[in-house]
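Let us practice reading a record.
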Amino acid sequence: MDVILFLIFAIIAVVCAINVVVQTHPISSAISLVGVMGSLAVLYLLLGAEFIAAAQVIVYAGAIMVLFVFVIMLLNAGAETKKGQSTMALFLGVPLLAGLLIVMSWYLQGWFPANTTVHFGGFSLPALPGKVAESGGSAHQVGMALFTTYLLPFEVTSVLILIAILGAIVLARKEMD
């Protein structure tokens, strides 16, 4: 049952992620991004990381998406206008993408030891290196890591979000004048 749920929500996440890129209206893209965040939260639940799943819903699908929608509406962004496609992009896009995926998969295989696997339902997947697979992702472990090891990146991220909001307000005010 876990494998079926995992596959269903993985497919939903991928379809919503593709829809984020394909949509021409920014609000539709933001709503598709909420679908990606919700699907990822369910995948975290299936992997046994309840705290990370709750944080995913509260922080990303809740607060960050409200911020995105607020900034989009503040900028009064309309739908994109379609322009003609480049002939070179039409013929070289798919082969270059396939080549990039092949090179990336070859490169990433070197990161994983050959004998480290995680068993999930009927699947055996290579485990990520580090303590992510070993620890359970409990609230205490996440809190200790966040406020000791990752305190500076956490604070820098909050300052960057604040700068982005201020930049959106400045850009919106210049267009109104």
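A brief commentary: Residues 1-80+135-177 form a domain with the Four Helix Bundle (Hemerythrin (Met), subunit A) fold (CATH 1.20.120.1200).
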